Amino acid sequence: MSDLQWVAACGVDDIEEEDVIRFDHGDRTFAIYRTDKGDWHASDGYCTHERFHLSNGLVMGSVIECPKHNGRFDIVTGAAKRAPVCVDLKKYPVKIEGDTVYIRI
């Protein structure tokens, strides 16, 4: 039996295309993204370089740029794309039901 659960993170209208918001659940922080194509993704909410909130970053297509040192991650895969980041982001499944965005954590 899995301990993973679907958690309501936000409303679909809470995030514009090419944007990101912060979602806190328990003692964890996540980032919820919407790409320029309208696709939804979720990852850990902190940059893997210096633990800065990605929700303050800039989404460009399917890339998030950390606001502290401008490292970049691929939103779709979580892959580190530009120094100084070199550790990938942990990703989480996303589903939309009605007007609600859920992530599986």
From TrEMBL:
<dbReference type="GO" id="GO:0004497">
    <property type="term" value="F:monooxygenase activity"/>
</dbReference>
<keyword id="KW-0408">Iron</keyword>
<dbReference type="Pfam" id="PF00355">
    <property type="entry name" value="Rieske"/>
</dbReference>
<feature type="domain" description="Rieske">
    <location>
        <begin position="7"/>
        <end position="103"/>
    </location>
</feature>
<keyword id="KW-0479">Metal-binding</keyword>
<dbReference type="GO" id="GO:0046872">
    <property type="term" value="F:metal ion binding"/>
</dbReference>
<comment type="similarity">
    <text>Belongs to the bacterial ring-hydroxylating dioxygenase ferredoxin component family.</text>
</comment>
<dbReference type="InterPro" id="IPR012747">
    <property type="entry name" value="MocE_2FeS"/>
</dbReference>
<protein>
    <submittedName>
        <fullName>Rieske 2Fe-2S domain-containing protein</fullName>
    </submittedName>
</protein>
<keyword id="KW-0001">2Fe-2S</keyword>
<dbReference type="GO" id="GO:0051537">
    <property type="term" value="F:2 iron, 2 sulfur cluster binding"/>
</dbReference>
<dbReference type="InterPro" id="IPR017941">
    <property type="entry name" value="Rieske_2Fe-2S"/>
</dbReference>
<dbReference type="GO" id="GO:0016705">
    <property type="term" value="F:oxidoreductase activity, acting on paired donors, with incorporation or reduction of molecular oxygen"/>
</dbReference>
<keyword id="KW-0411">Iron-sulfur</keyword>
<dbReference type="InterPro" id="IPR036922">
    <property type="entry name" value="Rieske_2Fe-2S_sf"/>
</dbReference>
